[in-house]
Each structure stands twice: as structure tokens, then as C-alpha cells.
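Incident log, support desk, overnight shift.

02:14 A customer reports that sequence design results differ from what the structure should imply. Their input is reproduced verbatim below. On-call engineer (initials T.W.) acknowledged and began investigating.
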């Protein structure tokens, strides 16, 4: 990979930030990319934007974030830049992260944990995934993960969103293990189109040097997403690749409900693109 790539990682003062930063550093090192660390959080003790922001607590957290980021760059031998967003407004914080994601080749975010992480907006990840136009890698709020050599599952429904996610995942898939292209079809429905040799994503993956196979399953309702999560466990997969806001052919789920369900229940890193 050329050094012209940029990987963005969102930084905050939560304990899980260290896991996210470690993964981002590893990806930057492997891809020869420049890592951009963006510290952005609100102070949950402050009821909205007030005069005197940033608070002393925010300034201290920001300084600690910069020190940790610089240390991580040195440890991994990665070049990068640290920036801090100084705003107490959740909407503005989201917009700053979104703007940064739009000029990054990949953005690394953390899964939101309800009742625990109150320093960033609950809908941050979904807004960035849908609005960035670039791939986003979301790291779960529990567990440790290794993307190198890990099997992956690609949720495929032959839509623009799934194609965008597959293209954005190329570097991760090439560094990983075998891939399973999983197509989930609602019961009583036919596939979006008949399978042909020239439109099979497995053929594309093989040109990338990724060993892949394909499965087609039938499911109903939210069971479509549960099936995806179940197959991740069955395969021992370390990565899920999926398009965001795709309903996987099941309109009654509502636009985006499948995306939100995975964001709420994910157990491995998920690369999403809209």
C-alpha cells in the first residue's frame, strides 16, 4: 500500500479507546497509511454548551489523548497527526467527525455502549456510516480482535451498498483468511437476480487473492440479521462486511433497521459502507 492512504480513528477518554487505537495503528502500519487521530467528546457533566467550554476536565482528557496517540505512533512506527475537537455540542461533534471521515480512506469507530459511553452521541456511528461516503470499521465495545488471517463473512445482496462495502473492505480481506459470501433471502422470495459467472463476487475476491466460497440461506424478519451473527460464530469469523441501510430484501424491517440491529448486537469488527 502507498503512504498516500489516510486512516481516521476516533479518540475519546473511554477505556475501549485503547483497543480501537491499537487496531488502527496496526492497520496503518500494514497499509503504509498515515493515521489521523481525532479526539472528540462531550462532557456529560455539562448540560449543553455554555460559556467557558472547553472545560478543565475536557482539556485534561484531550491532553491525555494526545500523549497516548503519540506514544502509540512511536510504538508502531506509524506516521500520523492528532487533532482535538473543542465543542460541547453533540451535533457539532458528530459533524466534525463526519467531515473528517469524508476525506479518509477508512474510518475506525467504536460501538456505542448504552449507559456507559455518555461522552459521544448514541447515533454517532450510524450517522457517520450513512453520511461519510467512505468505509467505516466499527470495533465492538467488548472483546479483543485480530484481523490478520481471520476468516470473514461478506453479507451480499447485489445492491449498491453491499458492493460499496465489498470494495471498501478489499485491504482488510486481503490481509485476512478465507471469506464466506453470504446471501440471505427472505422466505417466499426469489434472489434479486439469477447467479451468473460474470456477476459472482467470489470471482472478484479470487482476483484479490482471497479464497472464498458462497452460501445462500432463507430467513424471515429480523432473523436475517440473527442468521448473519450466528454464521459469524459458526465460521469463527473475525470480520463482517456489509452494506449499511440495505434491507436485504425484507422491506418490513424498515430502512436502516438491519443496520441498527447489527450495530447493537455485533460481536466482531464490522466494516460498513452506504
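02:41 Re-run completed on a clean worker. Output:
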Amino acid at each position: 500500500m502507498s503512504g498516500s492512504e489516510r486512516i481516521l480513528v476516533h479518540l475519546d477518554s473511554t477505556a475501549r479507546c485503547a483497543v480501537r487505537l491499537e487496531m488502527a495503528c496496526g492497520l496503518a502500519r500494514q497499509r503504509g497509511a498515515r493515521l489521523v487521530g481525532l479526539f472528540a467528546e462531550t462532557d456529560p457533566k455539562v448540560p449543553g454548551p455554555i460559556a467557558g467550554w472547553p472545560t478543565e476536565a475536557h482539556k485534561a482528557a484531550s491532553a491525555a489523548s494526545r500523549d497516548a496517540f503519540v506514544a502509540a505512533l512511536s510504538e508502531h512506527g506509524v506516521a500520523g497527526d492528532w487533532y482535538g475537537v473543542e465543542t460541547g455540542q453533540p451535533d457539532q461533534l458528530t459533524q466534525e467527525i463526519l467531515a473528517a471521515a469524508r476525506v479518509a480512506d477508512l474510518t475506525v469507530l467504536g460501538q456505542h455502549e448504552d449507559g456507559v459511553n455518555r461522552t459521544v452521541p448514541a447515533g454517532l456511528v450510524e450517522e457517520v456510516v450513512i453520511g461519510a461516503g467512505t468505509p467505516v470499521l466499527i470495533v465492538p465495545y467488548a472483546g479483543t480482535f485480530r484481523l490478520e488471517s481471520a476468516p470473514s463473512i461478506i453479507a451480499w445482496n447485489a445492491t449498491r451498498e453491499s458492493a460499496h462495502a465489498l470494495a471498501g473492505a478489499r485491504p482488510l480481506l486481503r490481509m485476512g483468511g478465507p471469506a464466506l459470501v453470504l446471501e440471505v433471502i427472505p422466505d417466499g422470495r426469489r434472489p434479486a437476480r439469477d447467479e451468473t459467472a460474470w456477476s459472482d463476487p467470489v470471482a472478484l475476491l479470487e482476483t484479490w487473492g482471497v479464497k472464498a466460497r458462497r452460501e445462500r440461506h432463507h430467513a424471515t424478519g429480523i432473523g436475517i440479521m440473527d442468521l448473519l451473527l450466528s454464521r459469524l460464530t459458526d465460521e469463527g469469523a473475525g470480520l463482517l462486511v456489509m452494506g449499511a441501510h440495505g434491507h436485504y430484501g425484507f422491506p418490513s424491517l424498515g430502512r436502516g433497521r438491519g443496520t441498527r440491529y447489527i450495530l447493537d448486537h455485533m460481536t466482531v469488527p464490522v466494516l460498513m459502507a452506504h
